[in-house]
Amino acid sequence: MNRTRFAPSPTGPLHLGHAFAALTAARLADPGQFLLRIEDIDRSRCRPEYEAMITEDLHWLGLGWPLPVMRQSERLPAYQAALDRLAGLGLTYPCECRRADIRAALSAPQEGVTPVIGPDGPVYPGTCRHRSMDQAGPEDAIRLNMARALDHLRSDGIAFADEGIATSQHLSALDMIEGIGDVVLARRGMGTSYHLSVVVDDAAQGITLVTRGKDLLASTYIHVLLQRLLELPVPRYHHHRLIRDDAGKRLAKRDDARALRLYREQGMPAAEMRQLLGF
């Protein structure tokens, strides 16, 4: 049985790429097993009007889902429990570095050397790795010690089968450490991060097939690692193609010209939109 989900953040209008992602998840779900989840942990950017627009756009596309809808803003205790478990294993540490600090640390040792870019940007250089969790303050982020995490699992890397690309994906321990690094599990002021919350929520909702764009392939290695550390079920994964603009660039929420609401307002029938996206 396939249980899938579409989990948008209400920080802007849905565009064509979101519609393709939602329709893909719904197509691959068994009847009644497509869920909507609202990823609203960033309270500074999330807006109720965007959430309402998301619901309207998805209904316009012909999609429905069981109620109530899960909202990440209501699940902070669950994320804290997962953080506490990882901390109890000695796999986390507090980080006081800001983005400017990270840029400075990466450029100082070897000026002119291009930093390695991971799923979340430049790979963290480990400045705060010496700190222990009893030193954590309210302004600290919480990071995963990638090397310790892999050692805890006695793992030489992370692997998973990809049903969208139709091949097995594998990343060695060295590539996990050097190419992904010590990812943030809880951002300052939020109590969690995308990587942690999506893993905890997929398990809570019994998601068996995670559908997402190919641009999130690197993040999936992090999620499979966290699932194994937290002893959660590892769902199957399906990475699908991306919808791009005329220049070949992946669509983002700032691309308002591709917003679904504009197509709706211009009178496009939903069936025409589905056909445009290949459904």
Description:
The protein has 279 residues and is α/β, with parallel strands linked by helices. It has helices at residues 16-28, 48-60, 76-88, 99-107, 146-152, 173-179, 194-204, 217-229, 260-265, 270-276; strands at residues 4-6, 34-38, 70-71, 92-95, 117-118, 121-122, 141-144, 157-162, 167-172, 184-186, 209-213, 236-240. Strand 1 (4-6), helix 1 (16-28) and strand 2 form a beta-alpha-beta unit. Helix 7 crosses helix 8 (217-229). The longest helix has 13 residues, at 16-28. The radius of gyration is 19 Å and the shape is globular. The two termini are 22 Å apart. The mean pLDDT is 90.
Task: Work out the helicity level.
Answer: 25-40%
Which parts are unreliable, with pLDDT below 50 for 5 consecutive residues or more? none
For the sheet with most strands, the description reads:
3 strands, parallel
Amino-to-carboxy terminus distance? 22 Å
The quaternary organization reads as: single chain
Q: Which band does the percent of strand residues land in?
A: 15-25%
Order of helices and strands: EHEHEHEHEEEHEEHEHEHEHH
Characteristics:
single chain, 279 residues, 3-stranded parallel β-sheet, 3-stranded antiparallel β-sheet, 12 strands, 17% strand, globular
